[in-house]
Amino acid sequence: MARYIVRRVLQMVLAFFGTTLLVYWLMFAASGDPIAALAGERPLSESTRAALIQEFHLDQPFLVQYAYYMKGLLTLDLGVNTSGREIGELVASAWPWTLRLALLAFVFVVVAGIALGVIAGTRRGGAFDNTTLVLTLVVISIPVFVIGQVLALVGARYDLFPTNVVGDDSLAALIVPALVLGSLSLATTVRLARTSVTENLRADYVRTARAKGLIHRRIVGVHVLRNSLIPVITFLGVELGSLMGGAIVTEKIFNVPGIGFQLYKAISIEDGPTVVTIVSLLVIVYLVMNLIVDVLYGVLDPRIRYE
Amino acid sequence: MSEAAIAEAAAEAGANTRSLAADAWRDLRRNPVFWVSAVIIALLVTMAVVPRLFTSTDPHSCRLRDSLLPPSGEHWFGTNLQGCDIYARIVYGSRASLEVGFLSVAFVAVIAVILGMIAGYYGGWSDALIARVTDIVLGIPLLLGAIVILSSIELPSVWPVVLALGLLGWTTATRIVRSSVISAKQQDYVQAARMLGANNRRIMGRHIAPNAMAPVIVILTITLGQFIAVEATLSFLGIGVKGNTITWGKDIAAATARVTTSLGPVLFPSAFLALTVLAFIMLGDAVREAFDPKLR
């Protein structure tokens, strides 16, 4: 087990440096003159310019700049954006919103997804199963921003629920945005759980349990559920990371002042440093979640460890 | 047994054993889901190639006097805020969506087939290297990576989006090609070809590739639908296809500001977008079912 964890951690460290280098390079290769962006309308004197170039290491080669950037990132010094504001501060104020939104969406996906999937899987071919299949397919095909926009429209027109989260501090205001954010994951989870349950219901151990005279509820609730949740858990773990990254669309539609909202704002004012920092942070969250899931998966299923 | 009898027996055996592709095609022909999605996709492709077949209205000729008209005989889906005909804009907007979808999937297919074949066929250090690069690219969520790439390219065409989706979207397809190449490599006919003196290129091109492509075709069909959705999302965020090109995502985004007063400008392009994505996902599902021997 220890060897497996060490191997996964090493793989993650490699992926971490690779992805951040890639993101940093993309932004480095593309950005214009950052000093001009920082200065804005005011013309800068040569000496100020030289001092700023010195301060931000802009005279150094690319890899050295990347090393400085990594050093900052690892010591939680995220630097300043093009308007001179601390990015760390920006992220700290936005982070709780995204975390709350993503966790709410996650709870919704886990509870509703597994429940619906198990019910559909145990009644394969029935009306409930077919309805679920069609509905989930429809949800998968409609892009999240369309679902969000239509819900926001309906909510605003008939005054059903708040569609503007800014200024409304209650958790209730986040419920509809969380439903929107989680809709795609929910549909996938339902389908995954359904397939997994139907496959496991045909397994030998279910026949054995039935032959022993166990009641149906116990067979499904204990024997089948435990075995069919393994693929679902893997998917869900990776999904928590992507929910935070995917929040950009939902946060824009419902005006949630979270990470995605800040990212969107940074894109529209072409604030490169903020874009790269937020994307790197989200990539880190994503990688760490993947690592945790992989290790947990190794604990749950011994076959994985000895691959 | 005479030679003629052997040839006859062989011909008979040939008539009774169908290839996997022929079997799959027989299954597909009987599947209504396949026909529904194929007809939708055929219509959309025609729309993208010759939009004039579907409308004679110019999507760029807009009269502010006609702003936000409800659906009527003249404007089937009504007009948007600028007074442009929504139906005409949907017809002309299909081109950008399908171009992005097909071009980026073609890009992904080329990368996936080359890298997957190398990794699966040769194995060893090339396999390890490709696996590590795949890990790295897989660590970047598609939407976020595309945002970083596109926020820096100011080119008014579909190519930046195609580039972003292609560069970030090849990982799953590559892994699938790799694993199906590995399983095809161990088949008897590959050993036979090698003993007959075929070189690596011939084995890969004539024997492994045709037999290892089915799973990746399925995945690419579904990916095509997803890429169209991602393009619309990027356009919605204002960093997708730039310039004057009409796209569904941009039209939806533009209409959302007025969303409380008029539904049409948001709903109609959204419905077409969803229908397109749905058609590709259904086609992929149908093809997958046809190729999966377990489901027979």
From TrEMBL, chain A:
The chain crosses the membrane at residues 12-30, 101-121, 133-158, 170-193, 228-249, 278-300. Signal peptide: none annotated. Belongs to the binding-protein-dependent transport system permease family. PANTHER family: DIPEPTIDE TRANSPORT SYSTEM PERMEASE PROTEIN DPPB-RELATED, DIPEPTIDE-TRANSPORT INTEGRAL MEMBRANE PROTEIN ABC TRANSPORTER DPPB-RELATED. Keywords: Cell membrane, Membrane, Transmembrane, Transmembrane helix, Transport. It is a multi-pass membrane protein. The keyword Coiled coil does not apply. Its main location: membrane. It is found in: Cell membrane. The lineage of its organism: Bacteria, Bacillati, Actinomycetota, Actinomycetes, Glycomycetales. One of its GO terms (biological process) is transmembrane transport. This is Oligopeptide transport system permease protein. Residues 95-297 form the ABC transmembrane type-1 domain. It comes from Stackebrandtia albiflava. One of its GO terms (cellular component) is plasma membrane.
TrEMBL record, chain B:
GO terms for biological process: transmembrane transport. It comes from the Bacteria. The chain crosses the membrane at residues 33-54, 100-122, 129-151, 157-177, 208-229, 266-287. It is a multi-pass membrane protein. Its main location: membrane. One of its GO terms (cellular component) is plasma membrane. The keyword Zinc does not apply. Keywords: Cell membrane, Membrane, Transmembrane, Transmembrane helix, Transport. Pfam families: BPD_transp_1 (PF00528), OppC_N (PF12911). InterPro entries: BP-dependent_transpt_permease (IPR050366), MetI-like (IPR000515), MetI-like_sf (IPR035906), OppC_N (IPR025966). It is found in: Cell membrane. CDD domains: TM_PBP2. Residues 94-284 form the ABC transmembrane type-1 domain. Belongs to the binding-protein-dependent transport system permease family. This is Peptide/nickel transport system permease protein/oligopeptide transport system permease protein.
